[in-house]
Design brief:
CATH topology of the domain at 187-344: Nucleotidyltransferase, domain 5
Strand order of the largest sheet: 5-4-1-2-3-6
Radius of gyration: 42 Å
Shape: elongated
Strand content: 5-15%
Order of helices and strands: HHHHHHHHEEEHEHEHHHHHE
Largest sheet: 6 strands, mixed
Oligomer: single chain
Distance between the termini: 114 Å
């Protein structure tokens, strides 16, 4: 406060205060406009370089003047200038000057420039080059004289920057619903799968599955690829068929094990008919392929497949359990045997009475009475264990 201010009377002081307030409001408005302009152009010292030495010197002088009313931390915060960068500018201002060398986008010979990266993105996302693989696109860019970078660099840039090749694939329409039989022995599926033992021995497993019930009708295991085994298991399945109205239709692929003279002889005898999947019909043989996946991943691959005898016992166990014990969700909890032989009334009765059983249980809990417990005599006996020493032929038909 100066002596001139002390000499002013009360009225003149009020006029001076009003003038100062008006100036403060004007300065505030100007500062708001400048801040909005800086934000619109995204001008921040923490995002941009400042190579000119005169500009750095001007900022240092402005910071020094601002420290009369602001702290150093506050002044640097307004400029978005880090303290380390500020002190470095002060050190080099005293020694070698604040001016930087001209900025070069290619500091090293292998560094990509912004223009090259933009060209790479245009070629990667362009419809003109969508048929060119990424590795060969790098060589093509070199031949065209656009970008000289390795295939590894192209793959890294595509991965890190999430560039997408314009390759929306259009596949032909496939049937959403496969063959569905309305009764047992209407459609059969036959197929062969390969199983490798621990000693790298290849074993061939053939099986016949009923489309209606998902029951495995016959199967065969052999260490050699014998096309006659398919005819054997089909003949065994036909002997135990429960339907005598019409011969079943066998769905198979076009392999030599399914298209040969022995199969043609059985077809000529009227034992069954044959259609080739994806050739004579538009459907695939996926029903039995799905069973292969369940057999392998849910049972076989959980054991050490060291010998053919071990594999034979494991397949025999799973086929028996699949047919007689494991319920199928598509059959409302019924097993393939119950669907194939028609003994499914008890399961339907249980499914229909689930709501009533739940109501009875809730009523008994409210009344305080206990839920009846089945006695040991009423319970069904446990399934007998499988005999590990049981021997059977490699080609097996499931008993009816």
């Amino acid at each position: 406060m100066t002596a001139e201010v002390l000499d002013l009377d009360h009225l003149r002081l009020q006029v001076e205060v009003l003038k100062l307030r008006q100036q403060v409001l004007k300065l505030g408005a100007v500062i708001c406009l400048l801040v909005a302009l800086l934000r619109a152009f995204d001008i921040r010292l923490d995002k941009h370089r400042l190579p000119e030495g005169e500009s750095k010197a001007g900022l240092l002088r402005a910071i020094e003047r601002a420290q009369r009313v602001l702290s150093l931390r506050g002044a640097l915060g307004v400029l978005h200038l880090s303290p380390a960068r500020y002190h470095r500018w002060q050190r080099i201002a005293e020694s070698c000057g604040l001016g930087d060398r001209s900025s070069c986008p290619r500091v090293t010979p292998t560094r990509l420039t912004a223009e090259e990266i933009s060209t790479m993105r245009e070629m990667v996302e362009s419809d003109e080059y969508r048929h060119v693989p990424t590795g060969r696109l790098a060589i093509l860019a070199q031949r065209l004289g656009k970008v000289f970078a390795s295939s590894t660099t192209w793959w890294r840039m595509v991965r890190e920057r999430d560039w997408c090749r314009p390759r929306h694939r259009l596949y032909p329409a496939k049937p959403k619903l496969g063959i569905r039989a309305s009764k047992p022995d209407e459609f059969w599926h036959v197929d062969t799968t390969l199983i490798t033992l621990l000693d790298h021995t290849t074993v061939y497993l053939k099986a016949v599955i009923d489309n209606y019930s998902r029951r495995i009708l016959a199967w065969c295991l052999s260490t050699t690829f014998d096309p006659m085994n398919t005819a054997k298991i089909l003949a065994q399945a036909a002997q135990h068929a429960v339907s005598a109205f019409k011969p079943p239709t066998v769905v198979a692929d076009a392999g030599i094990e399914n298209v040969n003279g022995e199969i043609d002889r059985l077809i000529g005898s009227g034992l069954f008919s044959r259609v080739l999947a994806l050739r004579e019909v538009s459907f695939s043989n996926s029903l039995i392929e799905a069973w292969w996946r369940s057999l392998k991943h849910q049972w076989l691959y959980l054991h050490n497949l060291d010998t053919v005898a071990t594999l034979l016992c494991l397949v025999d166990f799973y086929v028996t359990v699949h047919n007689s014990e494991i319920p199928h969700a598509a059959f409302n909890g019924q097993t393939p045997d119950e669907m194939y032989f028609g003994s499914r009334h008890d399961v339907f009765l249980f499914a229909a009475s689930r709501t009533s059983r739940a109501l009875v249980l809730a009523a008994s809990m409210r009344s305080g009475t206990s839920w009846p417990v089945c006695s040991a005599a009423d319970a069904s006996p446990a399934r007998e264990g499988r005999r590990s020493g049981d021997t059977r032929n490699s080609c097996t038909a499931q008993p009816s």
